[in-house]
Amino acid sequence: MDLQLYLQDFLLLAIAHFLALISPGVDFFIIINSTLKYGKKAGIITAFGIAISNLLYILLALFGIMIIKENIYVFNSLKILGSIYLFYISYYLINSRKRDLFENSIKHEKNSRLVNDFIKGFLSAILNPKNFIFYFTMFSITVEKSTPYFIQTIYAVWMFLAVLLWDIFIVYIISLENVKRIFNNYISLIEKVSALFLSFVAITILYNL
User: Fold this and answer.
1) Alpha-helical runs (H) found in the chain
2) Gene Ontology terms, cellular component aspect (predicted)?
3) Residue partners of 105: CB distance under 8 A and separation at least 6
4) What's the pTM value of the predicted model, to 2 decimals?
């Protein structure tokens, strides 16, 4: 078993996933809304809902890749489509305008039912088909016919934990003005760097075909 090869695939998967993760999307603003309205506990429960939903998409994407990876033509076609999708994400990030992520965010905690917070986070992520497309794309890059099941499990667990821990980190950022200000100032640069890296990944996929 070539552990070095799997480590390279894992690093590619982890970096691409994290860069896509830190670029604010719908889930990001759902977490901000829950935290500012109902407090840290509500924000964390919302983050768990988002993470569980992502885990379902991760497992579906991984299972789908395991089924079709025997057919090289279908597999390569999906890699091409996945590359196009990564270029699309890169285009969106590179053209995103600088904005205040926390504009008009005034904290006013209210009473909240934690079940509702979980459902809100879960639905936010499960109703976003881009999550499944992204995971499917990333697994088409890193999962091959020879990839052991326990390596695939490591990929899935890592991506789930990355989503959960990052979203919880966002909850705590909101309560720290200095950290929030730094994040807000550099998010535009983060998005541009993410776009370049994801474009590089897409080009690498197409080149290796």
Assistant:
1) 3-22, 26-38, 40-68, 72-94, 114-126, 129-142, 149-174, 177-208
2) plasma membrane
3) 32, 36, 174
4) 0.77
